[in-house]
Design brief:
Distance between the termini: 10 Å
CATH architecture of the largest domain: 3-Layer(aba) Sandwich
Number of helices: 13
Strand content: 15-25%
C-alpha cells in the first residue's frame, strides 16, 4: 500500500499514544477526510455519520457505550478498547471513595467551608463541630466486589492490604483474572451472597442488558444496615431511585458515584464525582498507547486484540501476502474462501479462523500475490462483511 492510513482523532488522545502510529504509514488529525480508523474517548458516535472508508474504531478506555457496536459489527468493523489500562487509576479512586464515606470527609469539608476564618471562636467551633463527623476505619469491615476483572482484582487486593475482608462475585471470571485474584478473597456463588455479607459494595461490570439496575431495591435490602455502595462502573448498573430511598431510610449510609446526574445532585449522603475514574495522566497515556497499538496492528497486519465485537486473532506472518476477512459466523465460510483461492491457483501458506458469537474472522497467508479478482470474489461470498488485502510493502 502506497497511501497512508488515515486516522481521525476525536477528543484529546495522549501524544504518547499517537506516537505509536508511524508518520510514514499514518496520517493522523481531527479533521482527516475518509478515515480508515477513528480514535475516540467520550465523543458519541451514535448520531455521527460513519464514513464508508472506516475499517476500525479505537476507544481509549474500557467502556464502549458511546459507540454503535451492532452497526460496526454489521459492516465488519472491529471496535477496540483498552481493558485494564486505567485499572490502577480507578482502583485508587475506589479506595478514596471508601475513605470519603467511612470518615465523613465530604461533610467535614463542607462544615469547614461554612466557618468564618476571621471568627475569634474558629478553633472552638472546629473542635465542637468535628464530633458530628466521627466515622469508622475500613479495617475488619467486609468489601463486596461485583465484577472481578482487572479493576475488581486490584480493588480486592488494595482492600485486603487495608485490613478488610473481601468477598467477590463474577459469573464470567476469566482464567487470567482468577489467577490474579488474591487467595484470601472469598468467592461467592451469587450476587445475593455478596450483598448479605458486605458493609461496602463496589461494582465493576460493563453496562449491558443483563447488568442494568443489577443493584436494585431487593438487593439493597439484603445488605447490612448502614452499608455503603460505590459505583465506578456505569450509572445504569445501579437503580438510583432505590439508592435514594435506602439512604433516606438508613439502610444505606452513603452512595459514592462517579456518574453524576440531576437525580443525584445535592442529595444528602450522596458523594458525587465528575467521572474521574480514569482521569489521570498515567491512565490516559496507558489507554492511548494500548488502543493505538491495536488499531495500528489491525490496519497493517490484520491482527485483532481486545476487540469488543470480534475474536482475538493473532497470526505471525509466513509470507508477504495476507488476506483478512470479516464474516458472519456461518457454515462453510472457510471452504468458500479456500475455493476462491484454489481456483486462482494460489497456495495457502497458513490460515486461521476464529469466531465470537455471530461474527468470525479469518487470516490467510498465501505464497504469492493475490489478484484483485480474487479479493472481489471473496467479498462476493454470501456472509462476507469485509475483505482486505494486506501485502507487506517492504
Amino acid at each position: 500500500m502506497t497511501d497512508k492510513y488515515r486516522v481521525r482523532v476525536l477528543n484529546h488522545i495522549s501524544a504518547g499514544g499517537l506516537k505509536r502510529l508511524p508518520w510514514d504509514r499514518f496520517a493522523v488529525s481531527a479533521d482527516v477526510d475518509d478515515p480508515h480508523a477513528i480514535l475516540v474517548r467520550s465523543a458519541d458516535l451514535h448520531d455521527m455519520e460513519i464514513p464508508e472508508s472506516l475499517l476500525a474504531v479505537g476507544r481509549a478506555g474500557s467502556g464502549t457505550n458511546n459507540i454503535p457496536i451492532p452497526a460496526m459489527s454489521a459492516r465488519g468493523v472491529p471496535v477496540f478498547n483498552a481493558p485494564g489500562a486505567n485499572a490502577n487509576a480507578v482502583k485508587e479512586l475506589v479506595v478514596a471513595g471508601m475513605l470519603l464515606a467511612a470518615r465523613n470527609i465530604d461533610d467535614a469539608l463542607k462544615y469547614l467551608d461554612s466557618l468564618d476564618p476571621d471568627d475569634a471562636e474558629l478553633e472552638t467551633k472546629i473542635e465542637a463541630g468535628k464530633k458530628a463527623f466521627a466515622g469508622h476505619e475500613l479495617a475488619n469491615h467486609t468489601l463486596g466486589v461485583v465484577g472481578l476483572g482487572k479493576i475488581g482484582c486490584l480493588v480486592a487486593d488494595a482492600a485486603i492490604k487495608l485490613g478488610m475482608q473481601v468477598i467477590g462475585y463474577d459469573p464470567e471470571i476469566t482464567v487470567d483474572s482468577a489467577w490474579s485474584l488474591p487467595a484470601t478473597v472469598k468467592k461467592a456463588h451469587s450476587l445475593s451472597e455478596v450483598l448479605k455479607h458486605s458493609h461496602f459494595l463496589t461494582v465493576h461490570v460493563p453496562l449491558v442488558e443483563a447488568t442494568r439496575e443489577m443493584i436494585d431495591a431487593g438487593g439493597i435490602a439484603q445488605m447490612n444496615p448502614g452499608s455503603v455502595v460505590l459505583n465506578f462502573s456505569r450509572g445504569g448498573v445501579v437503580d438510583e431511585t432505590a439508592i435514594l430511598e435506602a439512604l433516606r431510610s438508613g439502610q444505606l449510609s452513603r452512595y459514592v458515584c462517579d456518574f453524576p446526574n440531576p437525580q443525584l445532585t445535592r442529595q444528602p449522603k450522596v458523594i458525587l464525582l465528575p467521572h474521574l475514574g480514569a482521569s489521570t495522566g498515567e491512565a490516559e497515556e496507558n489507554c492511548a498507547i494500548m488502543v493505538a497499538d491495536q488499531v495500528r496492528d489491525y490496519l497493517i497486519d490484520g491482527t485483532i486484540m481486545n476487540s469488543v465485537n470480534f475474536p482475538d486473532v493473532i497470526m505471525p506472518r509466513e509470507s508477504r501476502f495476507r488476506v483478512a476477512i470479516a464474516n458472519a459466523n456461518v457454515p462453510n465460510m472457510v471452504g468458500g474462501i479456500s475455493h476462491e483461492m484454489a481456483m486462482a491457483g494460489l497456495n495457502i501458506a497458513t490460515m486461521t479462523n476464529k469466531s465470537r458469537k455471530d461474527l468470525a474472522y479469518t487470516l490467510v497467508d498465501v505464497d504469492s500475490g493475490v489478484p484483485d479478482t480474487v479479493i472481489k470474489a471473496i467479498g462476493a461470498i454470501d456472509g462476507v462483511l469485509m475483505v482486505r488485502y494486506l501485502p507487506l510493502t517492504n
